[in-house]
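PROTEIN DESIGN WORKSHEET
SECTION A - STRUCTURE
LENGTH: 153
TOKENS:
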């Protein structure tokens, strides 16, 4: 028994020859096999894969050697029977891009939270543990912004 997963990969490449080389390298790996949808342009590679039993960590492990070898970063869209709409990066600039993606998600969550009526926020933050966790996160974010040159009011 297993689960289905759907993966879309895209990356910038210096030229089409490098894009074809990357695709060939991925497809020769028996863990991947053939990508049924793929497109190589002058400066990009795009491909889709559908299969079974590939979680996020396995996808990272399979892509990392190719990404580092070619000094590229893959943008990965991933969904499975258990996860939907995941997006992450693998390769040379992955740490920075994953951080930016997480920060964007956090900003969106704060906007959603602050859009709630004040009474709802009070109810949510009445629980002492929840309030303490929230205050700790806010303090850590304020400290980080201050130590990295950001401003806090």
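SECTION B - SEQUENCE
RESIDUE ASSIGNMENT:
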């Amino acid at each position: 028994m297993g689960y289905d997963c759907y993966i879309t990969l895209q990356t910038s490449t210096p030229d089409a020859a490098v894009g074809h080389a990357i695709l060939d390298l991925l497809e020769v790996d028996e863990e991947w096999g053939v990508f049924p949808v793929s497109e190589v342009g002058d400066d990009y590679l795009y491909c889709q894969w559908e299969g079974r039993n590939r979680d996020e960590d396995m996808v990272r492990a399979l892509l990392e050697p190719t990404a580092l070898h070619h000094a590229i970063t893959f943008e990965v869209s991933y969904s499975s029977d258990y996860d939907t709409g995941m997006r992450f990066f693998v390769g040379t600039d992955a740490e920075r891009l994953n951080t930016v993606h997480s920060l964007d998600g956090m900003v969106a969550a704060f906007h959603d939270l602050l859009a709630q009526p004040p009474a709802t926020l009070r109810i949510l933050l009445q629980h002492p543990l929840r309030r303490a966790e929230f205050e700790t996160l806010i303090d850590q974010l304020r400290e980080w912004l201050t130590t990295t040159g950001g401003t806090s009011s």
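SECTION C - NOTES
Strands lie at 4-12, 37-40, 44-52, 73-80, 86-91.
The chain has a mean pLDDT of 89.
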